[in-house]
Design goal:
By secondary structure, the protein is mainly alpha-helical. 71% of the residues lie in helices and 6% in strands.
Length: 220
Amino acid sequence: MAKKEKKAAADAAAKQAEQRLDAIREYNINNMGSSWIDPKRVPTEEDVNAAKEEFETRTKALQEKNDYLVADAPNALRVAKFLKDFISNGFWAQRYFVGVINFVEYIDKFIEECEKEEKDLVMEYPPLQFCMLMLENYAGFGLEAAKKMAELWDQYVPVYDTIRDHIEWYNAEAKMCERLKQRWGMLAQGYYLVFTDVESDAVATAEEAAENTENKEKGE
């Protein structure tokens, strides 16, 4: 009876190992070029804790960042007034009315302070994101609106480009935080996940990962 139980346990372990390798192989094929699971490595407790700390530290830094530079001190007042006028007088969808009211109050406070003492125009993420929303979704009506936009174009482009760059950076950071969360979760489940597109010390490419998995299955 003991032999049968031992054999059954061995068979179950072998089946579990096979299923694990199947899952690893599928992941490596589907994520080729960005990340892979090393079938030869098992995460340690230190690995899991380090991944958790990296995720939490980077996420906290992103959440607390409140210093997106929109314009330096010599240009801050001009840019602030441009944003106020553009958003106040622009053609915006009705659902944005609360945002318009709140932003004008926000930028009016800055303008008042900047008129007393020159300083950089620095924003937190929420008003920055709202500016991007309004700048990207401007929708004038008729020829007069087109002419007005043409008059503003030289001011609009550099402000738009600056804000867009900040938003793109934020989105990339948010995506990276999600990836770090995924890696932490995978390590905690016993899968040694490596980002091949961001880690210079990755031990293999995703293509090699798929090959390594197959070789291990064959006992090579």
